[in-house]
């Protein structure tokens, strides 16, 4: 396997893209439906816990030693996440952008791009996220066009939240942090084993939290709760309501950006899986072809609204196990092993 390294900035950008990627266009509605006007409070608390996990992962990453079984577990999990993401991407694109395009064309195009990225040199998947930086800034700037239309009283009452809203809101908030375990996969490859300081993790967490928090807050302030329950992708409707001169429909413009964002997210998750496969086998091209064929075929069976909803609901539980519990267990196991040696 070829040796490769990442800089601190590359690591955090990689992590930011896979953690925002596909999920950011639907997260607001899901969290708000669960926790209502207190969604931003619940999300902030879950985000704080995510930050604590990142600090723990950074301190003890050297103990994250995967055996072959654990490597296959993570690979299967990432491929399942990609399959669900692909079905979600296709479903939303068919509704918003390509209503007459066959499903296999949309999914096939995304999978082909991912295949190209993953047969290229390591520099391609590690640097491809850079092209999204100006679009992220543009997206946030477009949201602020809605400030005059925000209804600030929608925030109230604050703090009156029931137990089931806490649980539901926290569960939906977990979706924002899918891919956390990628930090442990990439951390050993940081250039010259450089230290990642806690303040760098705090800066990353602040950026990630503000990104999601802004979209959640704007959604709460723009839509009445009763109306929001009927809107599946609220952030797109918010953008659609804004009149600008440089583009006819702002929502379609940003749907295309989200599509590009999601394609890169899919490619990066597959990159993680193929990377682990390469640590076990020298020959990997055939596997790369096979896994992309599987990922192309499987989403075609998830395209009904009910199946897709169930699959997306299960993502949070998958993240809880593969992104939090299993990594902590592996770190603890590695730490205990080091004490005996």
TrEMBL record:
<dbReference type="GO" id="GO:0016020">
    <property type="term" value="C:membrane"/>
</dbReference>
<dbReference type="GO" id="GO:0009847">
    <property type="term" value="P:spore germination"/>
</dbReference>
<feature type="transmembrane region" description="Helical">
    <location>
        <begin position="131"/>
        <end position="153"/>
    </location>
</feature>
<keyword id="KW-0472">Membrane</keyword>
<feature type="transmembrane region" description="Helical">
    <location>
        <begin position="202"/>
        <end position="223"/>
    </location>
</feature>
<feature type="transmembrane region" description="Helical">
    <location>
        <begin position="256"/>
        <end position="277"/>
    </location>
</feature>
<dbReference type="Pfam" id="PF03845">
    <property type="entry name" value="Spore_permease"/>
</dbReference>
<feature type="transmembrane region" description="Helical">
    <location>
        <begin position="314"/>
        <end position="332"/>
    </location>
</feature>
<keyword id="KW-0812">Transmembrane</keyword>
<comment type="similarity">
    <text>Belongs to the amino acid-polyamine-organocation (APC) superfamily. Spore germination protein (SGP) (TC 2.A.3.9) family.</text>
</comment>
<dbReference type="InterPro" id="IPR004761">
    <property type="entry name" value="Spore_GerAB"/>
</dbReference>
<keyword id="KW-0813">Transport</keyword>
<keyword id="KW-0309">Germination</keyword>
<feature type="transmembrane region" description="Helical">
    <location>
        <begin position="173"/>
        <end position="190"/>
    </location>
</feature>
<feature type="transmembrane region" description="Helical">
    <location>
        <begin position="38"/>
        <end position="57"/>
    </location>
</feature>
<feature type="transmembrane region" description="Helical">
    <location>
        <begin position="77"/>
        <end position="98"/>
    </location>
</feature>
<protein>
    <submittedName>
        <fullName>Spore gernimation protein</fullName>
    </submittedName>
</protein>
<feature type="transmembrane region" description="Helical">
    <location>
        <begin position="289"/>
        <end position="308"/>
    </location>
</feature>
<keyword id="KW-1133">Transmembrane helix</keyword>
<feature type="transmembrane region" description="Helical">
    <location>
        <begin position="12"/>
        <end position="32"/>
    </location>
</feature>
<feature type="transmembrane region" description="Helical">
    <location>
        <begin position="104"/>
        <end position="124"/>
    </location>
</feature>
